[in-house]
Write a structure and sequence with these properties.
With 297 residues, the chain is of the alpha/beta class. It contains ten helices and ten strands. It folds into two domains: 85 residues, Leucine Dehydrogenase, chain A, domain 1 (Rossmann fold, 3-Layer(aba) Sandwich); 129 residues, NAD(P)-binding Rossmann-like Domain (Rossmann fold), CATH 3.40.50. Helix 1 runs parallel beside helix 10. The protein starts with 8 loop residues before the first helix and ends in an 8-residue tail after the last helix. Bound molecules: NADPH dihydro-nicotinamide-adenine-dinucleotide phosphate, 5,10-Methenyltetrahydrofolate (GUE) and magnesium ion. Keywords: Amino-acid biosynthesis, Histidine biosynthesis, Hydrolase, Methionine biosynthesis, Multifunctional enzyme, NADP, One-carbon metabolism, Oxidoreductase, Purine biosynthesis.
Amino acid sequence: MSSSNVIDGKAFAAGLRGRVAEKVAELKSQKGVVPGLAVVLVGEDPASQVYVRNKAKQTLEAGMQSFEHKLPDTTTQDDLLALVAQLNADPQVHGILVQLPLPKQIDANAVIGSIEPAKDVDGFNVVNAGRLMTGAGKPMVPCTPLGCLLLLQDRLGKDLSGKRAVVVGRSNIVGKPMAQLLLGANATVTIAHSRTADLPGECRNADILIAAVGRPEMIKGDWVKPGATVIDVGINRIETPEGKTRLVGDVAYSEAAEVAGAITPVPGGVGPMTIAVLLANCVTSAYRAAGLDDPAL
Ligand SMILES: NC(=O)C1=CN([C@@H]2O[C@H](COP(=O)(O)OP(=O)(O)OC[C@H]3O[C@@H](n4cnc5c(N)ncnc54)[C@H](OP(=O)(O)O)[C@@H]3O)[C@@H](O)[C@H]2O)C=CC1
Ligand SMILES: Nc1nc(=O)c2c([nH]1)NC[C@@H]1CN(c3ccc(C(=O)N[C@@H](CCC(=O)O)C(=O)O)cc3)C=[N+]21
Ligand SMILES: [Mg+2]
């Protein structure tokens, strides 16, 4: 496979962040408003700390305000709900992201449900999930699935009519909203999961294959239909034989790249898109709060 069949999510994300920065500057000059993103991290998970640092850096680079709230592992649900309430009420905050997973003593659904839907830039709140599913009202769309859709549409065109899409994984944060977006773009969608009878067979039907499983390199090259577009959402940190760690996706990349028409790498594929869409959602929220139409990004 030629390198042009690698979908460069890193470059696409950089372009999107550039458009976000332009919209931030326009809002500032027109309304004197600077979009603000609040990120809440509970606990000390090193991987989460890296993501949160990257988000803050890119937020500032786009000309936005970044508010970081780091809370200890022992934080109670009431403490976290109180912080969310404070951020809901803060006019400088247009987007609130509570990093998942949360410690066991906290009910994630209760916390997500307490975020003002307009500020729910992850799109995880039931109000936004319901809007996405029904088409009633404008949702905040979950960042990772929307990032995947943008990469697909850049390759295949906006209309996915006639294409068979298979989404492996049915989580609320990736698999289910991904399927919903593909359906909205007119693909014919199958959602596969751990109870699917013949996963390799399902995958081989896919013109568009989305892997969101959380199992390192589970999807093999001979599960991929020749010419298919493969989007690998997985972020798995594995130990190499030399005792170092390395990031791999849910797809056995080098095998799959031999067969696929196009494929996202890990790192440098979906991950950077997630953060770029997060910034885009936050800017959209700020435009709405200022009474403006959604910016074209
Ligand atoms: N790039 C990015 O920006 C992001 C990456 N991720 C990554 O994406 C991956 C998925 O994340 P997330 O959706 O949160 O994960 P979850 O663990 O919430 O969901 C995993 C899904 O995969 C299914 N699954 C697990 N094992 C198998 C199997 N052997 N065969 C078929 N299906 C299986 C599960 O099925 P069942 O429901 O039956 O248990 C479940 O639906 C992870 O690697 C995560 O790190 C996540 C968010 C953002
Ligand atoms: N409320 C919430 N919203 C999220 O969107 C959310 C979350 N919680 N919890 C964790 C997952 C994971 N996630 C990633 C974001 C960026 C990269 C990313 O930038 N990845 C880079 C490399 C990162 C690295 O090198 O470690 C890449 O793939 O190229 C990865 C993963 C967002 N998540
Ligand atoms: Mg996400």
